Structure formats: structure tokens, C-alpha cells
Amino acid sequence: MEQPSPTKTAEAAENTAETAELHASHSSSETAVDESNLKSVRSSISSRGDTDLHTKDHQHDDDILDHMSKLSVGAYDAVKTALMIADECRRKCERLEEKLRSLDSYKFDNIAEPLPKPGEPAYDIWDLKTRTAEHCEGLDYFAVLFQNDAPKRWLNYDKLGNASDAIKLVRQGDSSRVLVERFGIKMTPNHLSCLDGPNWLNDEVINFFIGMVQERNDFLIEQSVEKVPKCFCFNTFFFNMLSGGDDPKTNYNYRAVSRWTTRRKVDVFAVDILLIPVHAYKAHWCLGVVDMRPASRRILLFDSLRGSHRMFFKNIRRWLQDEHMDKKGEPLSDINEWKYNPTCETERLAPRQQNGHDCGMFLCLYAECISIGKRFDFSQRDISMRRVKMVQQILRGSIFK
């Protein structure tokens, strides 16, 4: 659901404040409002043609009129302004109801609380609550996503050797020489240099690390390790292509990725978790997660800057439907079982970055933890060390061997 603008919503409050100042500036005149003027204002409001206004709204107008008739003001326009504020609030409420009815992310009839009317408590539209409020309250789905409480981490930190030797390989010699080749990626010092200091990560480093995450997950699933979800990791190009790539005329193109899972021989509806790197606005890395398990279906986005990415949720829902039709030959009838935050905000419990260059690192570490069902065990203060460890793991070609 699109967040209402606090600036626009506060318009009524600001106008009311201006009206109060007008009252104060004319208090010495003690000019009583002519009752015939009040009646004419009431008539102008009630005759604007809205036949569906609620009786309670009219009563609210009457209450305002009664209150204003007791005030001493120096200008008839002050009363008229106050009434127009009430009328604008009522029309704003009607527009909000109409917008809610038009949304397809949830059914209007399932809103947890009725919409308050002008004059009622909580008539601030940004305070309205829907049936999806549990997304920000209970967070029970986190218990499912991070259910692995085993002490083992399946990381090879104790086998990586001397960190300074690994950094020397990155800093010295021919920057174009191939240091390691895996997952279809030839890793060079030039690629790895993004890990040496405060830099944005490139596609090669992220995709290589994601490849190692996938390899470890495949191994643990083969070993039937308890509470490790079966994952499928997409690379950094998938969501970009799904969202139209460099074509400015479209933001969704299923045909561009329709053979993606076929080539990789994976049925996404038979795995537990999908991990999807997202290059938001081509300037910021975050991690999309789709829980495919029937009992806990959900679409999530982990963003170390906690932004809002409406296109991700919209495109992934649409992709799930297109993928099911393309691979199964029939419509996906239960798309609404995949819950998500209707405000399209990202997960607030994700560790946050404290600078402008570590988003790629957070993406990789989110994926590493989620792929084994482990709660996040890192923060910004760990990132410098994790950069060095990532160089070592890439040179070794594994995060667990």
C-alpha cells in the first residue's frame, strides 16, 4: 500500500493553526458570527452533491458550526476556512477508502479495523492498520527462517591461513592474471581489489561468493543436515533482466529469464528458499528472499539501508505466477499465500550498514546466514574483517572446505 504523505496529511492541521491565529488576532473586535452566515455555509457544504456522505460526517460539521458560533472572530472567512478543512478531511477519507478498495495486495473487507471518520480518534491516515500488521509485530516468520540453532557454522575460517599473504596477491603482480576460476567466473586481482578497502562490491565478487553459498547448501542438503533449508541462489543478473534490464520502456520482462531455471535444472516450487541479489536503482545492493515452503510462504527483502522497493515485490509476485504457468502449464492459484509487507518496506531486523559502500558485503552475509537457517551474527564492526576473510575464501574457492 502506498504510504500517504505526512506533508499532505498535515495540511489540515496547519490550516487549523492558521485559523487559530486569525481568531487571536481579532479577539479584541468581539464581533459575533452572524447565524445566517453560518446557515449559508452549512448549506454550501451540504449541497455539493455527495449523496453518499455518512450521517456521522454531517454531525461532525454541525458540531464544528456549533463550536464556531460560540467564538468571537473578526472575519467570516475564518469560519468558512474551518468548515472547508472538515470537508477536505472527509473527502480525503473517501479517497483513501477508494484507493484501499482498488488494491490487489489484500482484500479491503479483511482490514482489521474500520476506517475512522473525521472527528474520531486515530484519524491520522498513517496510523491505519491492516490485517498485515503482524508483519511488523509478531515476526513469527523469522523463527521459521532462522530455525537452525545448532552451534556449527560450516565456515572454514580456521583453514584460511595468513591473511596478509592473501592481500599481497590482490595488491601485487599483474592485476589481470587469473587467481581462481569457479562458477564460470575467472577471478583476478582487479576483481578482488573491491574487497581491499572501503569499496562497492562488483558482480564478479558477489556472484562468486553466492556460488560458494550454493555449493555449501547443496553439500549440507546432500548430507541431510537437520534444519538447513534447501536453497536456490540466483546471480546478480537475474532480477535486473526480469525488471527490463536496460530497456527504458519496460520494468518487467519474463521472457528474458524464462529459461533461467530450465538451464539450471531447478524447479523453484520444489525448494525451500530462493535467494535473489537485487541491485536497487543500479546503485545499492540488497537481498531478496522468497520462502517457498507451503506453511511459511513469504516474500522478503533485506536491505542494509532499510529502503522501500515496491518493484521488487510486484515483479517477484508476477514472476512466480508466470514461472508456474510456464513450467507447470497451469495458473498459480494460490499466489496470495505468499505474504509480504504491503508498504514494500524491507526487513527492519536486518543488520544495518553505517556507511555508503558496504551494501554488497551485507548482501553476501545475509545470504550466507539465511542459506543455513542461522540468525545474523554480524554487524558493521565486523565488515572490515569479513572483507579479508572473503578474499581468502574466494582464493580458496570455498566458504566451508
UniProtKB/TrEMBL annotation:
Region (Disordered): 1-61
Bias-annotated ranges (Basic and acidic residues): 49-61
Keywords: Coiled coil, Hydrolase, Protease, Thiol protease
Record-level GO BP terms: protein desumoylation; proteolysis
GO MF, one annotated term: deSUMOylase activity
Superkingdom, taxonomy of origin: Eukaryota
InterPro entries per UniProt: Papain-like_cys_pep_sf (IPR038765), Peptidase_C48_C (IPR003653)
Any GO CC annotation of this UniProt entry: nucleus
Pfam family membership, one: Peptidase_C48
Keyword Chloroplast part of the UniProt annotation: no
Biased composition (Low complexity): 7-19
Composition bias type Polar residues, residue spans: 38-48
Sequence ranges assigned to domain Ubiquitin-like protease family profile in this UniProt record: 185-370
Coiled coil: 79-106
Family in the record: Belongs to the peptidase C48 family.
Protein name per the record: Ulp1 protease family, C-terminal catalytic domain containing protein
Organism: Babesia divergens
Upper taxonomic lineage: Eukaryota, Sar, Alveolata, Apicomplexa, Aconoidasida
